[in-house]
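Would you mind writing out the residues of a protein together with its fold in token form for me to study?
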Amino acid sequence: MTEPKRTWFQRLIPQGATPSESDPQKLAKDALYVLNTISRGEVPIATDATVNEDDAILIHQVAAKAEKSLEISPEEGARVALALGRLLRIITPATVLSLRDTDPAERRIFFLFPVPTYLANHLSIGLVITTLVSVLIAVTGEFWVRYFGEPLDQTDGIFNNIGLVLSILTPFTYGAMGACVYLLRSLHKYIIERTFDRRRRPEYVNRVLLGSVSGGAMVLLIDQVTTDTGDVIEFSSAVLGFLAGYNIDLLFSAIERISEALLPKVGIETVRRRDARPDGTPPTLPPLERLLDRLAVAKSEEEKTLLKELIEAAKARALAKPAG
């Protein structure tokens, strides 16, 4: 049975599957690959960690049999699996997959030039292209404003309308740019340490989308910041968009602060605010049974104290009512 034909894109991606003890041939090749990577010093290893000499000899012997397509006994496969496990403990958190996905030796000739084809490099190229597109849109918007002037609302004209669209896109563009800068910085670290995890690729796409949305939303929530000394610092939409894209938590913290300021918490403080009335009349207390039920399930000491005060006030008011 022939192997299904792979597309040009699939051929560029190195096939570094997770080693499996059920495939001793591949297991031996993976073990030799990890051993050679450690020997060349291409991956950081744990402090004072060394490769067991017996493991190295075993891996070379079994890998030689695998290269010649000779049969590998189950015992040899198990021993190689244990040796590979010891090697991976030395280079943790790197794995066989992360080593292959960040291997600079994975190259293909493209128009007479060697082009890196390891998986992390593909993701890096995608982030670079997204960054350049964002920069191009931002530069176009800045040029448009300087050449044609500030766009005016409710004004017809193709150039004015294009300027309005570019000005609206500015925070979203800078948000995506900030997210790409953050991801490129993180990805560079993973490539150097050989710890890139291909399972987290969707997170990179999500981060760019969240960065773009955060950049646009941040402009709606914040236009200035007050320092500890009371100084007020105003930011442009571009700066806010870039900061929101680079640090998405900035948006969520701003949303929480605004929510706390606009939406008061319903609890003890709310009850106490309702106790006082402008006309001086006493507040209407809940029925005594309801107060007792709430006291039974109260958790904080402050809430218990308040409920006890309300219960005593309800009892006193009940006794003060005239009979009949």
